[in-house]
Design brief:
The chain is an alpha/beta fold. The protein is about 40% helix and about 20% strand. It is built from five helices and five strands, in the order βαβααβαβαβ. Strands 3-2-1-4-5 form a five-stranded parallel sheet, sandwiched between helices. Helix 4 packs parallel to helix 5. The longest helix is centred in the middle third of the chain and has 19 residues. It is globular and about 50 Å long.
Length: about 140
């Protein structure tokens, strides 16, 4: 008899309203499917020359703090306690794809810009939709 594993959902978080909606959606979906949520926030240092830069450890700590704040402000305490936070280094789309390698579902927020661009997906969402190893849900911001 094979052992059944939990339904795994990875959600991308950047602190924006669409990513908070994606987190709420992912939590609801996890509750409905007896699953768990991993919230991923990434960071990447720009290439600047001769400027003092924070260390990787400082960026990790700042990102961990920002992720914890977003989770705490977005969902209730019971759901927040069940979410696994993950900080990744590098481009957000690639970090999400890596985190979703063994996931059942990847959830990202929609970042339209209005006008014609409003009908298009953001670059991270588009990359994930085209390259994810699992189904992807793109959650729109509430208008």
């Amino acid at each position: 008899m094979s052992e059944q594993r939990d339904y795994s959902i990875v959600v991308g978080i950047d602190g924006s309203s669409p990513s908070r909606n994606a987190l709420r959606w992912a939590v609801h979906q996890a509750r409905s499917n007896n699953g768990h949520v991993t919230a991923v926030m990434s960071w990447q240092l720009p290439e600047l020359y001769d400027w003092p830069m924070p260390t990787a450890e400082e960026c990790d700590r700042a990102t961990e703090k920002a992720l914890a704040t977003v989770i705490r402000e977005t969902v209730d305490d019971v759901d927040a306690a069940a979410i696994r936070g993950e900080v990744a280094r590098g481009h957000p789309a690639k970090a999400l794809l890596k985190a979703a390698e063994s996931a059942d579902l990847l959830v990202v927020g929609y970042r339209g810009a209005g006008g014609i661009a409003h009908a298009l997906l953001g670059s991270v969402s588009q990359y994930c939709v085209n390259h994810a190893p699992c189904p992807v849900v793109v959650v729109r911001d509430h208008a």
